[in-house]
Amino acid sequence: LFNHPSDTQLAEQYYHLCLSRNPDHAACHRALAVLLIEEGRSPEAVASLEAWAAARPTDPEPRMELARLCYENSNMLAAENHLIDAISVAPGDPRPLVALGSLREQTGQTSQALANYSRALALDPRQPVVSAKVASLSSGAATGGGTVMASAPAAAGPVR
Predict the structure, then answer these.
(1) Can you state the percent helix, strand and coil of the chain, rounding each to 5?
(2) At a CB cut-off of 8 Å and minimum separation 6, what does 79 contact?
(3) What pTM was estimated for this model as a whole?
(4) Cα–Cα distance between 25 and 39 in angstroms, integer?
(5) Are 131 and 108 in contact (CB under 8 A)?
(6) Angle (CA) 64 95 98, round 5°
(7) Contacts (Cβ under 8 Å, ≥6 apart) of 108
(8) Which residue spans within 6-58 are E strands per DSSP?
(9) Among positive and negative, which fits the CA dihedral 77, 69, 96, 25?
């Protein structure tokens, strides 16, 4: 809060302590990565998330966090690749599909976004926000408008 180096060091120690007790604590992995980036230690942040992903080869969560980190640093191609990896390790999980749909919608790839949202909806039809996006993108495609529906602010990252 006050940019004291000792506070930052203590926070990092607590994040590592948390991860030693619960190696799959997604919020802690995320917070540690954000802290490292704020400290100018981006390679360490990425390495930390990549190590988590390597330790959990069938879990999409680390890959989604990598995607989110890339997205927040305006690396859309890397974010897209991490989301595709997340889908490949968990094809039955709609969350990475929704995130990829959101990313593609924001980058103007509306037909691919529609395909991602539709697939996510097929996996879990109880997603009213995704249903609305499918309806909106479908009506835009039907009228030939191809307009991109408003989405979450850029700082929020891909929809999860």
Answers:
(1) 70, 0, 30
(2) 67, 68, 70, 71, 103, 158
(3) 0.81
(4) 21
(5) no
(6) 100
(7) 148
(8) none
(9) positive
CA 29 to chain centre: 13
What the block records as the tokens of 9 is 């060091």
Residue 21 CB coordination number (10 Å) = 9
Measured in Å, how far apart are the chain's first and last C-alpha atoms?
27
Q: Which residues contact 27 (CB under 8 A, 6 or more apart)?
A: none
Token pair belonging to 74: 């305006």
pLDDT in tens, 106-149: 999 999 999 999 999 999 999 999 999 999 999 877 666 544 43
Please state the three-class secondary structure of 69-133 as a single string: HHHHCCCHHHHHHHHHHHHHHCCCCHHHHHHHHHHHHHCCCHHHHHHHHHHHHHHCCCCHHHHHH
The answer to whether the beta carbons of residues 35 and 44 sit under 8 Å apart is no
